[in-house]
Write a structure and sequence with these properties.
Distance between the termini: 52 Å
Largest sheet: none
Number of strands: 0
Length: 90
């Protein structure tokens, strides 16, 4: 791990060790991870409010909400009714 994270901020090694310590089925502590890298960014004078960072931070939330919406549409569709979208092979 030392060689992999050589010449990188210490937060990268901390992150890698954290990930390696997670059980396969464990949910990561995303708040901890974001705080770790936000602290690193601030220490290196990066602005964590830069739109690219905000987009990446919220991407997982937006993808999760889109997936929930898709699942809810399928669940709420009356039984036997097919989707309004055409088959791509048509």
């Amino acid at each position: 791990m030392d060689e992999l994270c050589l010449n990188q901020p210490p937060e990268f090694k901390e992150f890698m060790n954290y990930c390696r310590g997670l059980a396969f089925t464990a949910d990561p502590d995303y708040k901890y991870i974001l705080n770790l890298f936000e602290g690193c960014m601030e220490r290196h004078k990066f602005d964590p409010k830069v739109p690219d960072f905000i987009w990446n931070k919220n991407r997982l939330f937006l993808e999760k909400e889109a997936l929930k919406g898709s699942i809810n549409r399928v669940i709420s569709r009356p039984a036997g009714k097919k989707s309004d979208t055409k088959n791509e092979t048509d």
